[in-house]
Amino acid sequence: MSSALSTASRNIARGAHRAARSSTSHPGYRISPTSAALHARNYASATADAAEAVHQNVITNRDPSENSKSAAFVREYEPYCLTTYARPGLVLSSGKGCYIWDIEGQKYLDFTAGIAVNALGHGNEELSTILYEQSLKMIHTSNLYYNEWTGPLCKLLVERTLATKGMQSASRVFVSNSGSEANEAALKFARKYGKLTPGGGEHKYEVVSFYNSFHGRTMGSLSATPNQKYQKPFAPMVPGFKYAKYNDIDGLDIITKDTCAVIIEPIQGEGGVYFATPEFITALRKKCDEVDAVLIFDEIQSGLGRSGYLWAHEAFPAEAQPDILTTAKALGNGIPIGAAMVSERIAQAIKIGDHGTTFGGNPLATRVAHYVVDKLSNPEFLDEVKHKAELFRSGLEQLKEKYSPVITEIRGTGLIWGVQLNREPNAIVDAARLRGLLVITAGNNTVRIVPPLIVKEAEILEGIEILDAAFASL
Ligand SMILES: Cc1ncc(COP(=O)(O)O)c(C=O)c1O
User: Subcellular location, in the record's words (predicted)?
Assistant: First the structure.
């Protein structure tokens, strides 16, 4: 370990206590100073383990050259794929835990988790066994018939939610294939509710969402995503969508008796890891109650343990709860699935034939999701996530001190972190990748870190050291 890096590591332990108070997250998400100190001690022992994973400030991995197997692979197949993403030339091939390998045999520490999806990491053998067994038994039947797993998943989601301090009105679940489709369902349910509720009717169809949010790419979820980059090529948007400023209580006047739904992320993930304040969310809930608008919490990225709680909104005051909660991403650990959980009041507005899906809720995806929800809702597992958060907080705060003014702010909780830069972040993402760490960008000049939730302390340390080296190389 280079001396600069090992000094940084020791400082992380020392800084855990201080950083627990300084970085940006709302108070509900913060860990107590006592547990931060306790964790600093754990961190010190993790430092020893991680010494094995030495990362000098040298380039350990290469982006494939023109003559490589990867380049030949991309040249052969890329012409047939519609180009919707800019990506480096690596071709990923296998994974185990928090590590992945490309077809050249290069190893990467994965702090992207497939964009906050692989919460249980890669190559989870129990999950693979379940997948295999269920695929032999039955993959799909459609929703024309009951199957053995959709119902148990819906029951588990409701029961585990009711066991938290979160959505106490959780009652029924609609299972979809993705996050966008979960939001699409939520928006449709709210529109139907708006027509039927006393004082509602044809006029009550407006949806309010927030700047800097991300709700998906289908026309409804895109209409709720006020980002010109995503919306402009596909204009016009669905009628009735209005936008307000996140955390601006005065701006809530945009919500009126014509509003059927408000959709919000408790933590804006794609937007750069920003937190709704408890005051704002409480005021928002109150405003929705005043005008009888359905409040939708999009927990597609923030949910299922990512914040250290089963649902990020558990950290809000008890009165600030949603009528619909949407989830996806981690729900299948990579098997495509999403869900919209609704209160009984919303459920009553939805009748047979109102909404549907061919694949949504198939027994393969729902059996996997049942396993995943059971693991991710385990209180001990969630405590671990909270504790590991302090390693990130202290490590990233140390980097901020060291690389100011390039790093201007650290925002995060649990295992979702944003490192705010004063410049575009691709150079850091590239420098980290060349040193064997995958991270992603978000929002405006933010480096986003969303590792598998099973990440080990030594791996957190390793990742922070690589980031240190990446910043040092700028
Ligand atoms: C908060 C949020 N909502 C919705 C979506 C869309 O989910 P999907 O890509 O599964 O359609 C995402 C994806 O990044 C998200 O982060």
Answer: Mitochondrion
